[in-house]
Amino acid sequence: MRISVIGCGYLGAVHAACMAQLGHDVVGIDVDERKVKLLASGEAPFFEPGLPELLSQASATGRLRFTTDLAQAASADVHFVCVGTPQVKGGYAADLTYVDAAFEALLPHLGAGDVVVGKSTVPVGTAARLAATLADAAPEVTLAWNPEFLREGFAVQDTLHPDRLVYGVASGAAGEHAVEVLDAVYAAPLAEDTPRLVTDYPTAELVKVAANSFLATKISFINAMAELCEATGADVTQLADAIGHDDRIGRKFLNAGLGFGGGCLPKDIRAFMARADELGADQAVTFLKEIDAINVRRRGRMVDLATEVLGGDVAGRRIAVLGAAFKPNSDDVRDSPALDVAVRLMELGAQVRVTDPEAGANAHAVHPDLDVTTFDAAVDGAEAVLLLTEWQQYRELDPDALGERVAARHVLDGRNVLDPGRWRAAGWTYRALGRH
Ligand SMILES: NC(=O)c1ccc[n+]([C@@H]2O[C@H](COP(=O)([O-])OP(=O)(O)OC[C@H]3O[C@@H](n4cnc5c(N)ncnc54)[C@H](O)[C@@H]3O)[C@@H](O)[C@H]2O)c1
Ligand SMILES: O=c1ccn([C@@H]2O[C@H](COP(=O)(O)OP(=O)(O)O[C@H]3O[C@H](CO)[C@@H](O)[C@H](O)[C@H]3O)[C@@H](O)[C@H]2O)c(=O)[nH]1
Q: Can you tell me which residues bind substrate (predicted)?
C-alpha cells in the first residue's frame, strides 16, 4: 500500500517506520523541519528503543521517506493522521487545532478512493464532524478512526504486534472500503490472529479514552491504597501482589508510587471529562476527577517526605533527583511526575540536581532554570537521593557504593523498586510511598 503519515512525533514516526517495515511504501510528513531532517537522515528525533534500527533498515529499502511538503501525500492512498491533541491552555479539553489544520491542509491532495485514517486521540464526536467535512469537500474519500494503543518505550513492538486493532468506520459501502484497505495495511498483524474489531466512529473514539481511563483508574486505585498503607503501617507492594494474584484483578498497572504522567493518561482523562460535560453526561465520569486528584496528591506527598527527612525545611539543601522522564525507556517529559517534584523542591529553595539517562535535554528545554546534570554530579554530596523514574540502572544501584558519595544517607524511593532491607542494612534512611 502507498501510505502517508501526517505528524511524525512519538506516535507518527514509529507508525511510519513500522508501516515501511511491514512492506508498505511510506511518506512521513511533519511541519517540524528539525524532526523531518533527522528522520530523513535515518535518525530518531526522540529516544524509543528499536526505532533507530527500523529507520535505517527502512531508509535502505527506499520504502520510507520524510518531508515537510504535504503535497507529497498525493502519492499515497491511505493517510494516517497522527498529529498532537494536547490539553488546551487553561482548561481540560483537547486542543483540536492540529487535527483540524492537518485535515484542511490534506484535502486538496486527496484522490478518489483514498482513505483518511485518524489515529490521534480525540474527543468522541470528532470523527463524525470530520466525516461531514470530507463528505462536502471530497465525497469520494472515506474516513476511518483507528485509535492507537502503543506504549512509549515499547512502541515498535506494540505497533508491529498490537493487542488488538479497532476500526471505526462509516456504514455502507464507504465503511466496507475502509475495512478492506485497513485489512490490507495490517495484513501482517492480522495474519498473527490479532483481534480486529470493526465498529462505528463514536465507539472507536470511546474505546481509546475508556482504555486510558481504566489504566489511570487502576494506578490511582493502588495509589489510594498506598495512602491507607501510609496511615496504617501496611505495605502497598505486598497488597498489590496479593490482590493481583486474582486473575479478575491482575497485577499489571498496580505499581504504586509517584503516579502517572506523560503525553496521554493525564490529558486524556481530562479531555474525557471536558467532553462528557459538553455532552451533558459529566456525571458518568466525575470519578475521573478523583483519579486525577489522587494522582497529583502523590507528587505533593513526595515533596513532604523529602522535607521530613531533611528535618522540616529543604531550603538550601542538596537533593539528587534520579529521573526526569515520565517513565523509564523514554525521553518524554510531558507531565512528568519526576520533573514536577524536582521543580516543586527547587521552588521551595532546595539545591536540586536532576539526572536522567535520556531525558536530560528535554527536561532542560522545558525548565532551563533547573540544574540538569550527570549522575555523578547529581549524587556527589547530596543530602537526599530521590528515585523518581525507575530506570534499570537506578533499580540496580549499590547502596554501599552510593553511600560513599553522598553527604547523608537518605533515599526516597518514589517507585517502590528498591529493597528496603538492603538499603537500611547499608545505613540508609529508606522512605517510600505506601510502604515503611
Ligand atoms: N505518544 C504516544 O504514546 C501515543 C500513543 C497513542 C496515541 N497517541 C495520540 O497520538 C497523537 C500524537 O501524539 P504524539 O505523542 O505523537 O505527539 P507529538 O507531539 O510527539 O507529535 C505530534 C506531531 O505532529 C506534528 N504536527 C502538528 N501539526 C501538524 C500538521 N498540520 N501537519 C503535519 N504535522 C503536524 C508536530 O510537529 C509533531 O511532530 C495524540 O493525539 C496522542 O494522544 C499518542
Ligand atoms: O503500575 C503502573 C503503571 C504505570 N504507571 C505510570 O503511568 C504512566 C503511563 O505509563 P504507560 O501507560 O506505560 O505509558 P504511556 O506510553 O503513556 O502509554 C499509555 O498511553 C498511551 C497513549 O494514549 C496508550 O497508547 C497506552 O496504551 C497507555 O498505556 C507512567 O507515568 C508510569 O510511570 C504507574 O505509576 N504504575
A: 149-152, 208, 253-257, 261, 327
CATH number at residue 407: 3.40.50.720
Rounded to 10°, the helix 201-232/236-244 angle is 130
Residues recognised as catalytic: 264
- In a domain, residue 218? The reply is no
Q: Whose CA is nearest to atom 25 of ligand 2?
A: 149
**346-381: pLDDT as tens digits:** 999 999 999 999 999 999 999 999 999 999 999 999
Q: Specify binding-site residues for NAD(+).
A: 30, 35, 85, 121, 152, 267, 334
Amino acid at 313: D
The answer on 190 and 241 residing in a single domain is no
The total of structural domains in the chain comes to 2
- Establish if 228 belongs to a structural domain: no
Q: Give nearest CA residue, ligand 2 atom 4.
A: 253
pTM for this predicted structure:
0.98
Same-domain check for residues 55 and 99: yes
Range of the domain at 150: 2-199
Distance of CA 238 to the CA centre of its chain: 27
Domain match, 239 and 119 both: no
35: Cβ below 6 Å to ligand 1? yes
pLDDT in tens, 123-140: 999 999 999 999 999 999
Q: Which atom of ligand 1 is nearest to the CA of 10?
A: 16
DSSP codes joined into one string, 172-212:
HHHHHHHHHHHHHHTHHHHHTT--EEEE-HHHHHHHHHHHH
- In a domain, residue 377? The reply is yes
Query: Does residue 38 lie within any of the structural domains?
Result: yes
Cα–ligand 2 centroid distance for 336 (angstroms): 11
Structure ipTM: 0.99
Which atom of ligand 2 is nearest to 415's Cα? 35
φ, ψ at 333 (rounded to 5°) = -115, 10
